[in-house]
Design goal:
The chain has about 450 residues and is of the alpha+beta class. It has 21 helices and 13 strands. The chain has four domains: about 140 residues, Beta Polymerase, domain 2, CATH 3.30.460.10; about 80 residues, Orthogonal Bundle (Hydrophobic Seed Protein), CATH 1.10.110.30; about 160 residues, Hypothetical protein af1432; about 50 residues, Serum Albumin, Chain A, Domain 1 (Orthogonal Bundle), CATH 1.10.246. Helix 7 runs parallel beside helix 9, helix 15 runs antiparallel to helix 16 and helix 17 crosses helix 18. It is globular, with a radius of gyration of 28 Å. It binds adenosine-5'-triphosphate and magnesium ion (MG).
């Protein structure tokens, strides 16, 4: 049932007379027939006993919380002594932890019923809060009073949205009400933790329903979304308000962080850019640039990693740019933003279209689908769109008498000519091209 190294940890503790279980996420995943990423164990052995029993294989990684990491066959199992948490004062950390010999007390401190189950080495399930039934029904429910549990630790609010968005669970009514009620507590969390949980939610397959229902919760950290909710675009291209369009576009895109966050941001500027013409039609000229300006402080606030931030900025700046599915134009875009951003951009454009009025969708997608096919073909055939693929380099340009900035300009002109199909990417031809000083 568990991998051998996990059985080894449980069996070793049992051999010393202690109770030992796999707990939390791994039990949840196993009951859903998923392969757990990692296995956390819980035991009634005190941490110093766990250290003693496993000797050199044990690392005191979180003794204050009763956690010892056991390394076995190169894999790590976190072994935590059964504990019940003391009072929470800061909405994040329990002030004290007390060890207990009672697995049920340990399970009671866990956030949701589906995460509050333990499984022994022989497969026996300890499930005091009905986690198995909630899992079978796809229901997310707090252990105990949701208001109390979210007040103790506000991160649970975001974990709830994440489990709903990733696993498609529906949120039980009392838990759902407390998510709205207690949302302001999120402002006390560290930005990095908020970013991490929000990103998992944003990347969830079921993000659409979650962000429609709990936009106010996301709005605590990203109040820029609030004016989008219910904002009627008065546009014949749209059947949804700005927020619903946004989250439907997100859900229509592959589950990748840059792409999904980009789509969350791409229309934030619409309410501020909105004008009505004399015929009562809405327009939002230049809104994507406004959205890009609004996204910058959000990414700062949530401490987005720099590389993700740059990917999103590229997508925002290209979102509205038009190009045709021709070799020359596709190569130009590949050359300017790279292959990864190119395919993300096409995904973003198609997802955006898919969340508008359904009439004419096929025609709207066609050029982007053609560009995608062509892009793949060009990559497969090794078509040249970067300077490093060019059959000549800076030394060649210098030998031909170019110097300083002219070297780069000459190579760039050669690359442009190759991408336009005017010149072969072949050394002799390109040397001749450079020597002719064409377009330099
Ligand atoms: P994942 O590993 O996919 O993030 P998980 O549920 O395993 O999901 P972990 O952070 O690995 O999450 O936590 C392991 C277990 O610890 C959870 O299943 C839950 O029982 C408990 N837990 C984690 N975070 C909290 C929390 N903030 N409040 C209460 N219990 C928690
Ligand atoms: Mg886990």
């Amino acid at each position: 049932m568990f991998p051998p190294y996990v059985h080894f940890v449980l069996d070793t503790l049992a051999a010393h007379g202690y109770a030992a279980y796999v707990v939390g996420g791994a039990v949840r995943d196993l009951l859903c027939a998923l392969t757990p990423d990692d296995h956390d164990a819980a035991t009634d052995a005190p941490p110093e006993k766990v250290l003693e029993i496993f000797g050199t294989a044990a690392r005191p990684t979180g003794l204050r919380h009763g956690t010892v990491t056991v390394v076995c066959e190169g894999k790590c199992v976190e072994v935590t002594t059964f504990r019940c948490d003391g009072a929470y004062r800061d909405g994040r950390h329990p002030e004290s932890v007390r060890f207990t010999r009672d697995i049920e007390k340990d399970l009671a401190r866990r956030d949701f019923t589906i995460n509050a189950m333990a499984m022994a080495a022989d497969g026996t399930l300890v499930d005091p809060f009905g986690g198995q039934e909630d899992l079978a029904r796809g229901v997310l429910r707090c252990v105990g009073s949701p208001e109390v549990r979210f007040s103790e630790d506000a991160l649970r609010i975001l974990r709830a949205l994440r489990f709903a968005a990733v696993c498609g669970f529906s949120i039980e009514a009392e838990t759902a009400a407390a998510l709205h009620e207690k949302r302001e507590l999120l402002s006390g969390l560290a930005a990095e933790r908020v970013f991490h949980e929000m990103t998992r939610t944003v990347c969830g397959r079921h993000v659409c329903n979650v962000l429609l229902e709990y936009a106010d919760v996301f709005g605590v950290w990203i109040p820029e979304i609030l004016p989008c909710i219910g904002f009627d675009q008065k546009s014949r291209f749209h059947i949804y308000d700005v927020w619903e369009h946004t989250v439907r576009a997100m859900a229509a895109a592959p589950c990748a962080a840059a792409l999904r966050w980009h789509l969350l941001f791409h229309d934030l500027g619409k309410p501020a850019s909105f004008t009505l013409d004399e015929l009562g039609r809405g327009h939002t000229y230049g809104h994507t640039a406004v959205s890009a300006r609004m996204a910058a402080p959000i990414m700062e606030r949530l401490r987005f990693p720099n590389d993700l931030r740059r990917q999103i900025e590229t997508l925002l700046s290209w979102h509205d740019r038009q190009f045709s599915p021709t070799r020359a134009q596709v190569l130009r875009v590949l050359s300017e933003i790279g292959a990864e951003a190119f395919f993300d951009l096409l995904d973003a454009k198609c997802a955006d279209n898919a969340a508008k009025r359904p009439e004419g969708l096929e025609a709207a997608q066609k050029p982007w689908e053609d560009a995608r096919l062509l892009g793949r073909e060009l990559l497969d055939e090794g078509a040249c769109f970067t300077l490093s693929q060019l059959a000549v380099d800076g030394n060649d340009a210098v030998s031909l008498g170019f110097s300083g900035r002219a070297v780069g300009e000459a190579l760039r002109a050669a690359l442009d000519a190759v991408m336009r199909g005017e010149v072969e990417n072949e050394r002799k031809t390109l040397l001749r091209f450079l020597a002719s000083g064409k377009k330099v």
